[in-house]
Amino acid sequence: MTKALIVYYSRTNHTHKIAELVAQGVGANVERIFDVQSREGAFGYMRSGREAMLQRPGRIQPVKEDPSQYDLTILGSPVWSWSLSPPMRSYALAQQHKFKRVAFFCTEGGSGGGRLFGQLQTLCGKPPVATLEITEGELKSGEYAGKVREFIRQISGVIASAVPESGHQGL
Ligand SMILES: Cc1cc2nc3c(=O)[nH]c(=O)nc-3n(C[C@H](O)[C@H](O)[C@H](O)COP(=O)(O)O)c2cc1C
User: Fold this and answer.
1) 136 lines ligand 1 (CB under 6 A)
2) Which atom of ligand 1 is nearest to the CA of 17?
3) Best substitution site from 22, 79, 132 to test ligand 1's pocket, by max atoms within 8 Å of Cβ?
4) In terms of DSSP H, where are the helices of 69-144?
5) Does ligand 1 have an atom closer than 6 angstroms to the CB of 78?
6) Number of neighbours of residue 156 by Cβ within 10 angstroms
7) Among 4, 15, 138, 162, who pairs with 28 as Cys (CB 3.0-4.6 Å)?
8) Is the pTM of this model over 0.90?
9) Could you report the per-residue pLDDT of 15-32, keeping only the tens digit for each?
């Protein structure tokens, strides 16, 4: 039984691309977070940057998966204003007591991933077992593949070492 869940938010599909690769590599179930209100265009960009800077949660659509049913939840978000995106902040806030173990990944223009991971760790109340930070430059040049492979390797090790709870089949 698959016991890893990937939950991610992506406005322009960079984070989506990494989520798909990690999902294939790990064999995880996937849940994408969607906004209630569109963030398209210049106004959407400015509103997003401001909300992120003020560390406000964003309004998101209901999710289907329950992370408490998974041994590991892998959370992915773009960096906005050197911070966590408001939709992922909202998700992590709502689910923070349900995570058993967590791993984090992000995409960014060039900087802010470390700060984002710190914010997610605070929200989740536990350190990540692995992190992955990919820049737009790496996405364009294809140089991200090795980093993604290493992240998958680390996560697969964590999944393989998970002790099955009595009454379920493990991983
Ligand atoms: C509102 C906004 C703020 C951003 N702020 C940052 C930032 O502080 N640092 C950075 O490196 N990139 C920043 N970016 C760039 C995104 O992190 C980058 O394009 C990311 O890959 C987008 O992921 P997505 O396509 O999954 O939405 C920002 C983008 C947006 C829309």
Assistant:
1) yes
2) 26
3) 79
4) 86-95, 113-124, 136-141
5) yes
6) 16
7) 4
8) yes
9) 999 999 999 999 999 999
